[in-house]
Request: fold
Amino acid sequence: MLAQCFSSNVCLFNWRADEDKTGRTACSCAVTLICDSVRTCPCETERPTHLTFAIFSLLLHFAMQASPPLDQVFQYIDEHQDDYVQHLKEWIGIQSESSNPTKRDDVIRMMQVVGETIKRLGGTVELTDVGNEELPSGKIIPLPPVVLGKLGKDPNKTTVGIYGHVDVQPARFEDGWSTDPYLLTEKDVTALLSESREGNLYGRGSSDDKGPVLAWLHAIEAFQALKQELPVNLKFIFEGMEESGSKGLDELLKAKNETFFSNIDYIVISDSAWLSKKPALTYGTRGLCYFIIEVQCANQDLHSGLYGGTVHEAMTDLIALLDSLVNSTGYILIPGIDSDVVPLTNEERVLYEAIEFNLEAFKHTIGTTELLHKTKEDVLLHRWRFPSLSIHGIEGAFSGPGAKTVIPAKVTGKFSIRLVPNMDPDKLSNQVMTYLNGVFAARGSPNQMQVALESGSKAWVAHVTDKQYDAGRRAISKVFGVEAELIREGGTIPVARSLQHTTQKSVMMLPIGSPDDRIHSQDEKLSRDNYINGTKLFAAYIAEISQH
Reply:
């Protein structure tokens, strides 16, 4: 290619001609921007008579082609991956368990660390007070502050809001972890190339959600280290109570909607995982209604030898009530429960046909031989798109080892229903209570029974034709070289709907975790590959969304 650039003894790589000490003309040559193997100007015989605008443009084109700015960012990220792992190790070492009151100081310290990290990037930070929490004992402790950060305020740039959380689920080595859950440990290294290592980073919060939060901050730092201007303005919403219901967050969103959130164009969340090894964009989650049924037959537990056959047993009533909720095919028996479910269109079903999902591998992972549905599409639809009912347990019944011939005086059954658009928790609650009261009345039992809704949240769904999803697709293609899968989550991530509903902004979930990361479980991990390429993905997304 270089040979084609020379004609008439004119050096196309010459920015200027300088006189050396001997009086000869020498070229100050920019060729090394294009080819590191060339160290001298190909044209040293004659001082160029002119450098036309076309030649200058060609030189600039070659230089840009040789090292595009985003490629430089990617290279920087690769070169600093060990630093990023060390940063994650430091964050994992903070035991920020939001559900454990004795760890509240750790959660608050974690929020302070996040704030200081944003400040080092040049951002401004407000550690926003969201009130207190009353414990069952009556003790009052402070809720962790929410970090609201800003970086950039150019009115001509797109403004992106990034949500994440840095609190974690409880973890103890004695619960079955292979390593200390709060000491990031890399193992299972499979690639041993000198410049590339792919291992798994084990530690509580590595995938959910400290790793992704750090990946965003590292992506920003890479632009800055290379003295590249950030192509967007950024705002950060990082909380420390997500694993405990995001207490105080909804009120904060409403209070700040007309100020902090007013000029945000898009909101992106990285608090989920891919369905397979193929990168994905998540555009929907199911909602959740959690119910309890309480049945009481006596004021104390009874000996079955003395009282069995003489009383209406609470456990018998409860089992009958739970059995009336769903049949053996998974069909929910509560009348009218699916009346508000948005009908599935042919266009939507096509999205499921393209998703990579192996039924046999799925069965192997969960340890079963047969599923409720036979095809990939039907399994995914019932996992994400249709409501489901699950029975979780019975409180008050004997469940220990050995035999105990007791008739429990009071038992409490627990079950939940996953909601999809456009199901409403209040309407569903009325349907459930009406149905169960009818079933109980038909039994003719004199026992006391009550049903209560413990918590309820609606489903969230976004428009996959939104410009933000276009940017996400292009970013995934740029980093991973594949088309992004469009998926939903069967679980519930209330903050997605809260952010979309309150701010009326476009919300997208851009995950970097794998389906086998074991979040909330023993041996939670994030692969080094996902961590580093996820950092590149966030950098690419920042570049792509700036084009809108």
Remarks:
- The longest strand covers residues 287-296.
